[in-house]
Amino acid sequence: MYILGIETSCDETAVAILRISPLGRVKVLSNVVSSQIEIHQKYGGVVPEIAAREHVLHIIPVVHESLLKAGLKPSQIRAIAVTVGPGLVTSLLSGVETAKALAYAWKKPLVPVNHIEGHIYANFIDLKKPVKFPAIVLTVSGGHTNLVLLKGHLKYQIVGETRDDAAGEAFDKGAKMMDIGYPGGPIVSQYAASAQASEIKLPRPMINSVGFDFSFSGLKTALLYTLKKDSNWKKQIPEYCFELQEAIVETLVSKTIKAAKKYQVKTVLLSGGVSANKRLREALQKAVLDKLPGVAFGMPNLAYTTDNAAMIAMAGYYRFHAKKTVVWNKIKMDCNLELR
Ligand code: KG4
Ligand code: ZN
Fold this sequence. Notes:
Layout: E1 2-7, E2 12-20, E3 26-35, H1 37-41, H2 48-70, E4 79-85, H3 89-106, E5 110-114, H4 115-121, E6 135-140, E7 145-152, E8 155-161, H5 167-177, H6 184-193, H7 217-229, H8 237-262, E9 267-271, H9 278-291, E10 296-298, H10 310-321
Parallel strand pairs: 1-4, 4-5, 6-9, 9-10
Antiparallel strand pairs: 1-2, 2-3, 6-7, 7-8
Bound molecules: 5'-O-[(R)-(carboxyoxy)(hydroxy)phosphoryl]adenosine and zinc ion.
5'-O-[(R)-(carboxyoxy)(hydroxy)phosphoryl]adenosine binds at residues 10, 141-143, 168, 171-172, 183-186, 189, 272-274, 276-277, 306-307.
Domain Gcp-like: 27-313
Catalytic activity: L-threonylcarbamoyladenylate + adenosine(37) in tRNA = N(6)-L-threonylcarbamoyladenosine(37) in tRNA + AMP + H(+)
Enzyme class: transferase
């Protein structure tokens, strides 16, 4: 079957089409992402009103391009999956209203998808072996930091989450403090790669706390005060970036391994925009190998780490099979949608 996915929860207008064989083999036929990063860069963050207008301008051309790249006609699409939340309300609206209109015009079922669920399912796009459940998934993005126990397909239990800032936010706000650009994650990681080590010491928040929750706002404050005390910080940006990245990665890896042990999982997965981070990818993979014998590790290809619609179509496929579809006028958007 062919499934079309639409993602507009933040600042990427994305449409993808997957072909999924009866045996479950997945081929991404198109994965079009129209990014607004350059537009928001000058404001140092996403401006919701601008994001909304950009989605309206781009969504139909992106749907067209996706169909064209896949070489398909609308009649060949079996279902339309769309992100219904969580996200910016005015951004989500473009995707959801477009999906509704297409579902009505093309007479297709709609599959509502949770954005975090989409990130989790990015792991299922290029699978080499079937995932063994239970799995623990570290989902780290600009808006979310979750440890999700995946007991089976579509069976989620959040066992840990951030109490304040998300991991991606810690990268973004850290970069903003050092005035090195937006979005901070890739820039911090680039600077960090040019330092071998760092004398600077930042805290690993809640690393030894009971449970699996995270907190990154204290790290941000610690960075702010360390920078204030250091008159020479501008000459040490790579070292600051190195330590900021280490503090975030070490905390994420440590909690994930602890949760994997507690829940006796068979697989550890990684997802979300921050999963594009090379250091995190390597550190988590190594920790699973060293500390969790017999446990499998998986992570999405880089193309499916930051926001994209292939992951939404992938999650949509599993929802479609679980008969979690709705007709065009029954879909509901929820900007605070919980994972369930
Ligand atoms: O999943 P995503 O594209 O959007 C949300 O759902 O929030 O994640 C965006 C986040 C941003 O905070 C960005 O700085 C971070 O992912 N990010 C990275 C890297 N690439 C993107 N963080 C660390 N290292 C990266 N290479
Ligand atoms: Zn995301």
